[in-house]
Amino acid sequence: MAIGERYEGIVSAACSVIARRGFHQASTREIARAAGLSLAGLYHYVGEKDELLFLVLDRSLDRLLEDLDRSVAEARTPEGRLLALIRTHLEFGFHHAHALRIINRDHELLPEPRRAEIAAKRQAYLQRGLAVLRELDRHRRTDAELFSATNLLLGMLNGIATRPFLRSAADARALAAEVGALFLHGFLEASARGGCSAAPALGRSA
């Protein structure tokens, strides 16, 4: 097996084990076994468990940022860019559920200076969301208000993406449209139009 493939396999195994067991409970021996390696074989490629956590976070955030930048660049309107942000986050949660769980749960467990590197990438993602909402804002909200709105949006997306609402990529796209409409127009206006078409799907998934 090529070194690059072996390396990717190790990071994937670490992501799965850490997401399932938690960083403190996951062992390097368990990660090695999941990657099809002996413990000595694992240490031939990587160092301690901290390094594995960093690699999972670093690569996952790079992928998420790249996906978001590509989707936002393809959108033609501010509303389209909001939908691109929502869709990208939910699709990432569907395809990389373990990675999203670790991004939200375990990032502060890294020692410095690696914690600061990951914090900078998380902040970069937040700033992209903030820019999308600032472009949409017609009420000249303060930076603090926009920051709160961005965190609320991303928190809502994390809540959807880490629960059994997403059973397919089509679910992610449909929910993205519903969340976008709710965020843009508000709950009461959406209800006045006849409710959210995705509500039955959410009921089945819950």
Entry summary:
The protein is mostly helical and 206 residues long. Helix content is 77%, strand content 0%.
What can you tell me about this protein's structure?
The protein has 206 residues and is an all-alpha fold. The chain has 11 helices and no strands. It is elongated, with a radius of gyration of 19 Å.
Radius of gyration: 19 Å
Q: What is the helix content?
A: over 70%
**How many angstroms separate the termini?**
42 Å
Q: What is the average of the pLDDT values? A: 87
User: What is the H-and-E element order?
Assistant: HHHHHHHHHHH
What about the largest sheet?
none
- DSSP, total strands: 0
Estimate the strand proportion: under 5%
| Number of DSSP helical runs | 11
Oligomer: single chain
The low-confidence runs, each spanning 5 or more residues with pLDDT under 50, are 190-206
Computed structural class: mainly alpha
Shape: elongated
Task: Supply database-style keywords.
206 residues; 11 helices; single chain; mainly alpha
Topology overview:
Blueprint: H1 3-21, H2 28-34, H3 39-45, H4 49-74, H5 78-95, H6 97-105, H7 114-136, H8 143-161, H9 169-185, H10 187-192, H11 199-205
Helix pairs in contact: 1-2, 1-4, 1-6, 4-5, 4-6, 4-7, 5-6, 5-7, 5-8, 5-9, 7-8
